[in-house]
Amino acid sequence: MNINIRRAIALAFIIAFFITAPLLIFYTAGFRYNFKKAQVQRTGTLIIKTTPKSAQVSLNSKVLTATTPIRENNVLPDEYEIKINKAGYYPWQKKLDIRPQETTFIEDVLLFPQSQSEKISDNKISFLSFSPGGSYALFETQEFEQDFLYLLNLNNFRQKLIFNNDKSWKDLSVLWAEDDSKALIKIDDQLLVATTIFPQQKIDLQEQINKISTHPTNLKWNEDDSNILYWQDKNIIYELNVLAQTNTKIHTNAKNENFNDFLVKNNEIYLIENINGTKFLTRQKLDDTKKIAAIELKSADYNFDGFVQNHLLLFEKTYNTLFIFNPELDRIIFNKENVQAVELANQKNYLSIITKQEISYIKLDESELRENNITRYSDDLGEAHWAHSTANYLFSLQNKKISALELDNRDKRFTLEFPIPNIEKFIVNSNDAAIIFLQDSYLYQLPISE
Fold first, then answer.
1. This prediction's pTM
2. What tens-digit pLDDT sequence spans the chain (450 residues)?
3. Which of 87, 124, 306, 324 sits most deeply, having the most CB atoms within 10 A of its CB?
């Protein structure tokens, strides 16, 4: 090979290097040629995580080779129709923009199995009360003109008979402790506490209270200690230790006036009381008669809904108005009319707000509370409950059907309506394995995870 040929080969390699090296550098830096836009663009990244894993993903009908969890690098900037599929599950889809030099996240996606509902109990139910955390239910059924009260574990569906006195009952009510560990049960003239660990070992409180009052009112659990109950007798509030079965007087209204409602928290008491003909929300130490704070209320009918993340919730009954106060009672930080119910997410920072027509939420860890709308219906909105493992999903009951609502509002909120009619009430059990619902007076479960 003569010298001219060798020089030509060397020159070709040099030229090729100067051509390909920049291309490689640009390629490594994430630049790609976009044939659709006829230009070179820097790419973006797409990250997708689902429960369960191993779901198939397609971008604009192009199926990706990897399954979830996925990190797809070097995606050309564009709007993509993203679909997630898994055999035996309802599909998920959404339109999202992939932007240059940005990572688009699709996380906390729950894929719901296309499962069939199953009857939990053959008992026809006349009364049903779910525990707030979705671990248990108490239900009443009648046989041979007698009423029976059962405790049902909503995670393993085992049920135990906890009360029967060979009678048909006229009055039954249940008040659950916040941690699902106990239930205060009023059956006609009996007042019982049942624990969910040993439900058949009931504690009879009626005799203990009758030593002091024949007409106790306003019974409520301590929000932080499920061994403590409070109750009211006119202008006096008592603390009842369930285990020791002892009553302790903890507050007496100084002017011997009745008050509408009370709430005990952190050795302080909050009262809705009448002072010289005007309704006030007041705060004071349990061991002191001096008011720490007082705020005037505009109407006569209020009740407490407890503390959530250091925020005091109060309901005005005339217009079903929700008020949220800071604990110092120096200002109202949120209010909304026509509220049917509120529920705190398991993550303890999202508070859902349910009216007859809409579901929204507020983030309680924000400095200024603002309402975020989830969905709006024309009418007949019944109730709504959070998933326990993630604050990204809420389940609603509307027109007697249950829907799963995703909070991610990019493009549009993903909504899945389960094909089961005539649902009366429901809850999501505590491990998010199933929706428990009442249909035609019978209890069913719909598996939502596998």
1. 0.88
2. 566 665 555 555 555 545 554 544 444 445 544 556 545 568 889 999 999 999 999 999 899 999 999 999 989 898 999 999 999 999 999 999 999 889 999 999 999 999 999 999 899 999 999 999 999 999 999 998 899 999 999 999 999 999 999 999 999 999 999 999 999 999 998 999 999 998 888 999 988 898 898 788 999 999 999 999 999 998 899 999 999 989 999 999 876 567 889 999 989 999 998 888 888 999 999 988 888 988 988 877 899 999 998 899 999 988 999 999 988 888 899 999 999 999 999 878 999 999 999 999 999 999 899 999 999 998 889 999 999 988 899 999 999 999 999 999 999 899 999 999 999 999 999 999 999 999 999 999 999 997
3. 324
Nearest to 128 by CA among 119, 116, 137: 137
Task: Put residue 139 in one of left, alpha, beta given phi > 0 → left and psi -120 to 50 → alpha.
Answer: beta
168: tokens are 């048909």
DSSP 3-state of 338: coil
State which CATH number among 3.40.50.720, 2.60.40.1120, 3.90.550.10, 3.90.1150.10 fits the domain covering 43-110: 2.60.40.1120
